[in-house]
Design brief:
heterodimer; A: Rossmann fold; 4 domains; 5-stranded parallel sheet; 36 helices; 11 strands; globular; disordered N terminus; B: alpha/beta; Rossmann fold; Arc Repressor Mutant, subunit A; 2 domains; 3-stranded antiparallel sheet; 15 helices
Chain lengths: 753, 364
């Protein structure tokens, strides 16, 4: 089926389903019985799929596999994507929940207290016909104002969802409403209906609060607070929300509602939005969420540094994402979306990307060995055709072992790299250096001078290079800033930093030992302060500076012993520890911060196609549609129009012609002039007296052909073509049609891209 | 960063272009005061026939272009299954491209096509049909697998939008590849351009069992969506796929620019209106028309002159009768008034001389 359809252009639906074209919608087809292989698509079967791929039968097929996309092969990247993305997704959710959990707990506490206050004022769910009037305080609605510190409410949608889950799990009835429920159009009925639907799980025709009362009086519902969460308060209609509050407060004793509203701006937002009548019944309490940049740092740390899924991003992609976050949008949501697109594109484009599963396996070497041995020949070849393979010194032995050891090298170096980035981040924290900045710089394959730079330079195109100058401050980069500033850290902070380093460097024994050593020196310093009067010990350096520069030499003595030998009690010595820490970090950067892009086979795990990501993420219809029209022959590759250079030819697309003609006008285009110049283009000069432009000379045969065609072009068809071209421009929105005031002019909308 | 620097440059270029264009208008206005009515427009009927007979240029190349996009089909399927929506843009009708993609690659899920280029589309009907298709799909699937009985109520068109959306968003299909697909031609079209439709489409797109493939043609489409819709609901993956195919169906409902505002139309409507008026009124109009033909360089006929002439010919007896005639003419846009250079009001017929001559012949 596919091969047949590959050769034929898409059938014109205009011919075969003309009737459908005028239906608002129609069913194109229903699901056909599925093919057997897709039925059993569960994750984790990649290995068996691959085994079957490597069988002789499959090997024969593999040629057509590439073109047609055989089912077995199709599933592999998708499964790998699902596998990796589900891990990433879970990590993001965990990180965000961790950031918010303390606030959530406080909110829950407050909900409980508020509920008990309501209970003490009356008996919720009692079967009185109407709540008896008691004192005013019990007719207040407890309202939590959650300050989101973020004008972009998208980021907080998930937070409020999590909050709802959190409260639900702690025995509350939770209703989540949004500004869509509080519109002037649907009025008070809209939000009450949503409330009922979420609580009672059925939609009554009319909104009736008494239904809620009887629902709440049922034994299984009684005794729990009803929390109503409105995630974007500022976007609600003030009148409807006020009315909603007024209704709720009348019933608050029978239906113990507690409001939680997300506030993006300032604490006085409710004052601006609500009527004073409604406002007086609110009993507000303020809560504050983390800021977007805090969230971003936490996500970056967990996702791109700590979590080794076998999906990484290259330097250019990282820089792009950072700038997209900082300047384009500023929401964590859009960052995650961009990352997801990058991830899907990676698994789609890189045939060997499914090998990432080995990153997470305990014994990745044997996992990869098994996988790589069963690889079909084409895929094997694929691996050695990767541009980074040129980095392998010994080109002669391109065996499976080379591949597997290459992959293992990527994994282990990636682990070290992550540890060093985390150490740098901790050091940079004292000076508010963002993790994203350090991350980008650490990924830069040109950061390290020497051989690596030369080898990789060739592959880096110029798109993002000059961005470094204005952002990364080449000479005083974020990394060197972070390193240098350690010198000035007071001992308390230094010791704190070293303790974190100790945790982060657990994977690198040599460094870990040195960190322990520095720590013990500091500890000793602390002790020595108390022992000062005893006059113990003269300072003795544990390691010479030269030694600390080469961390690969494994030390023999235990750190404790070393500590016992060292004493520090003068200012100078304190500085010495700082200097040692600086030296140590410098060593870590030099020896362990190897950018992934400088390693052979990194393409299998690393997504580098920033242009593809950008075009999928941010479409640019305004520019591209104009480019299509102005440069139509670059897409059509026709023989008739591409010789023209700048001038217009009658053979070009009519809409292209009139759009190019429109460029010569101001913001208003005189229709008459426009039509005449269009006519002049499609008719040869001899036939048009009014023709304003001369056409280029044609080859003789073509000229004759054109002349023959001309005779058959009637005035009606010229006008029809003009009309149709104008309509097409109108569809693209590049024109505004004549108004009553200016019946002879159309207006241009776009001026340049 | 360079993208943003570029943006700044572009912005600068954009504003400069804009002001240049404005300047051109100032200087060019005098030059091109040509009237659309100066074009000798053929009869509207003939024009419509001619429009339907236009031969598509580069038909072969367009076919080649469409075939070249077939290599992207597997990618599109992959991205749909990853949970993205596909948004196609670029010049040319993408109708056949999208339908070809859906009918060759999306065979194992139900597909509904929405023609957004039509004037009105009822999204509720779409959603309920979609829910029915999904229900059938799930039923068949269950029969194949465990044979467990469906606990979910069969969706019907009488259910509310919320319930239908909740059904489509249900987690009843754990495997993420059981979905129904909506192909939306011109999601920015006139029938879907309103805020409510877009909100519903966004909610539809965010349902776990629904995937959306849509096309846009308008350069400012992105303004229809806020960040919530873009980032969390539609979740677009953009593709630039210019086809250069003619907008045949999409353009059907647009008026032809030469036919609707041209003189042909105005003269014809004028004749119809005049024929329905009293003979006296027709004669008043004739007086004005003859004056305008005789003094085509003047700004119009002063109302006093018109009154004097009409009174001489016993067409009107008082200024009031004349005024009532003039009001009638104005209501039907047969005449317009403007102030003469010496300060008095004068009336004129907003048609060319030839058109007026034709008109006089027709009513005479």
């Amino acid at each position: 089926m596919e091969s047949e359809s590959l050769d034929s252009p898409p059938a014109s639906p205009i011919a075969n389903n003309g009737e459908n074209n005028l239906q608002p919608f129609f069913v194109l087809h229903k699901a056909l019985p599925r093919k057997g292989s897709r039925k059993a698509s569960e994750t984790g079967k990649t290995r068996s799929k691959l085994a079957s791929l490597s069988s002789p039968k499959a090997a024969e097929k593999s040629e057509e596999t590439k073109q047609v996309g055989e089912d077995d092969y199709d599933e592999v990247p998708l499964e790998a994507f699902d596998f990796v993305w589900s891990k990433i997704d879970r990590t993001i959710k965990d990180v965000l929940l961790n950031i918010n959990i303390s606030v959530f707990d406080v909110i829950h506490q407050w909900v409980c207290e508020s509920f008990s206050t309501i209970k003490s004022a009356g008996t919720p769910g009692g079967l009185h016909s109407y709540p008896p009037l008691t004192d005013i305080t019990c007719k207040q609605i407890f309202t939590g104002l959650v300050m989101t510190k973020n004008v972009e409410f998208v980021d907080d949608l998930l937070t409020f969802k999590e909050l709802a889950m959190h409260l639900k799990s702690h025995d509350s009835h939770v209703v989540t409403l949004s500004s869509m429920d509080f519109t002037a159009k649907s009025g008070i009925g809209g939000c009450l209906k949503s409330l009922q639907r979420q609580l009672i799980k059925f939609t009554p025709d009319t909104a009736d609060i008494s239904i809620l009362v009887s629902w709440y009086s049922e034994p299984e519902n009684k005794g729990y607070p009803i929390v109503v969460i409105i995630d974007d308060m500022e976007r609600c209609n003030g009148c409807v929300l006020s009315e909603f509050i007024l209704i709720l407060r009348e019933w608050v004793i029978k239906i113990p509602v507690i409001l939680i509203m997300g506030v993006a701006t300032t604490i006085d937002a409710p004052k601006k939005l609500l009527t004073s009548n409604a406002l007086q019944y609110l009993s507000p309490c303020k809560f504050t969420l983390g800021s977007p940049s805090e969230r971003m740092d936490a996500i970056m740390e967990a996702l791109l540094v700590k979590l080794c899924t076998g999906f990484d991003i290259g330097h250019k992609v990282a820089v792009f994402l950072r700038n997209y976050f900082l300047r384009h949008d500023g929401t964590v949501t859009s960052f995650i979306r961009a990352l997801k697109i990058a991830c899907s594109k990676h698994f789609l484009m890189e045939p060997l990307s499914f090998l990432c599963e080995g990153f997470l396996s305990e014994d990745s070497h044997s996992f990869w060995m098994e996988m790589c041995e069963s690889l079909p020949v084409e895929m094997h070849k694929c691996a050695f055709d990767l541009p980074s393979c040129k980095l392998i010194d010994d080109v002669s032995c391109l065996s499976t072992e080379t591949l597997v050891s290459g992959l293992s090298a990527v994994k282990s170096l990636q682990k070290d790299w992550s540890s060093v980035v985390l150490c740098l981040f901790e050091a940079g924290k004292f000076h508010r250096i963002k993790l994203f900045d350090i991350f980008c710089e650490a990924l830069d394959p040109n950061r390290q001078s020497g051989a690596v730079e030369d080898r990789v330079k060739a592959s880096s195109s110029g798109i993002f290079l000059h961005s470094e100058e204005c952002f990364g401050q080449r000479k005083t980069g974020f990394i060197s800033q972070a390193v240098r500033r350690i010198k000035d850290l007071p001992p308390a902070q230094l010791s704190q930093l070293l303790q974190i380093w100790r945790k982060h460097t657990e994977g690198i024994t040599e460094i870990n030992v040195k960190v322990e050593e520095l720590l013990s020196m500091l500890d000793f310093d602390g002790e020595s302060k108390s022992n000062k009067q005893d006059g113990i010990g003269s300072p003795r350096k544990v390691t010479s500076p030269g030694e600390s520069k080469s961390p690969k030499k494994v030390r023999t003595g235990s750190p404790k012993k070393a500590a016992s030998r060292s004493h520090l009690n003068t200012e100078k010595d304190k500085e010495a520890v700082n200097l040692k820490a600086v030296k140590l970090l410098e060593c870590m950067v030099k020896d362990y911060l190897k950018p992934i892009e400088s390693l052979p086979f990194h393409e299998i795990f690393c997504f580098k196609h920033v242009d593809i990501l950008q075009s999928a993420l941010i479409g640019d219809p305004r520019k591209m549609i104009q480019v299509d029209l102005l440069k139509s022959h670059t897409y059509l590759h026709c023989s008739c129009c591409n010789k023209s250079g700048e001038s217009l030819l009658p053979s070009m697309n009519d809409t292209s012609i009139i759009y190019q003609l429109a460029q010569e006008h101001g913001d208003l285009i005189n229709l008459h002039d426009w039509f005449q110049s269009f006519k002049a283009i499609i008719l040869p000069p001899s036939n048009t007296k009014k023709g304003k432009r001369k056409l280029q000379m044609y080859p003789l045969s073509k000229k004759r052909k054109v002349a023959v065609e001309i005779e058959s072009i009637s005035e009606a068809s010229i006008q029809a073509r003009f009309c149709k071209a104008v309509t097409e421009l109108q569809i693209t929105g590049l024109l505004r049609m004549p108004s009553k005031r200016r019946p002879d002019f159309v207006q241009r909308i776009a001026f340049g891209f | 960063m360079d993208i943003n620097d570029l943006d700044d440059d572009e912005e600068f270029g954009f504003s400069r272009n804009y002001f240049l264009a404005k300047e051109m208008r100032g200087s060019g206005k005098k030059k091109s005061a040509q009237k659309l009515s100066d074009i000798d427009v053929v009869d509207e009927q003939e024009l419509r026939v001619a429009v339907s007979n236009i031969e598509t240029k580069h038909e072969k190349e367009i076919d080649t272009l469409l075939i070249s996009y077939k290599s992207l089909y597997p990618k599109w399927v992959f991205e749909l299954r990853c949970g993205f929506g596909l948004l196609m843009y670029g010049f040319g009708s993408k109708k056949s491209l999208l339908e070809d993609f859906a009918s060759t690659e999306l065979t194992d899920c139900g597909v509904i096509v929405i023609n957004g280029y039509l004037q009105s589309v009822n999204v509720k009907n779409v959603v309920s049909t979609l829910a029915e298709i999904l229900w059938e799909q799930l039923k068949t699937r269950r029969r194949f697998s465990a044979g467990s009985t469906s606990k979910v109520q069969q969706p019907s068109s009488s259910q509310s939008m919320e319930d239908l959306l909740a059904f489509l968003d249900g987690s009843n299909a754990k495997e993420n590849d059981c979905f129904v697909c909506v192909v939306i031609h011109n999601i920015d079209g006139p029938g879907l351009r309103d805020c409510e439709s877009q909100q519903y489409l966004a909610r539809l797109a965010s349902c776990s069992n629904v995937r959306v493939v849509a096309s846009i043609d308008h350069v400012n489409t992105a303004l229809l969506w806020d960040k919530k819709m873009v980032h969390t609901q539609f979740n677009w993956c953009w593709y630039h796929v210019p086809t250069f195919a003619p907008y045949k169906v999409e353009g059907v409902f647009f008026p032809l620019i030469l036919a609707c505002s041209g003189t042909a139309q105005n003269a014809k409507t004028a004749a119809i209106v005049l024929q329905s008026l009293t003979p006296n009124a027709q004669s008043v109009f004739k007086v004005l028309a003859q004056h305008q033909l005789a003094h085509s360089d003047e700004e119009g006929m002063p109302i006093n002159n018109l009154y004097a002439t009409c009174r001489e010919r016993f067409l009107v007896s008082s200024q009031m009768t004349l005024n009532s005639h003039l009001t009638e003419f104005k209501d039907h846009e047969l005449i317009k008034t403007r102030r003469h250079s010496d300060g008095q009001d004068c009336v004129y017929i907003p048609l060319t001389s030839e058109a007026i001559t034709n008109l006089l012949e027709e009513i005479g």
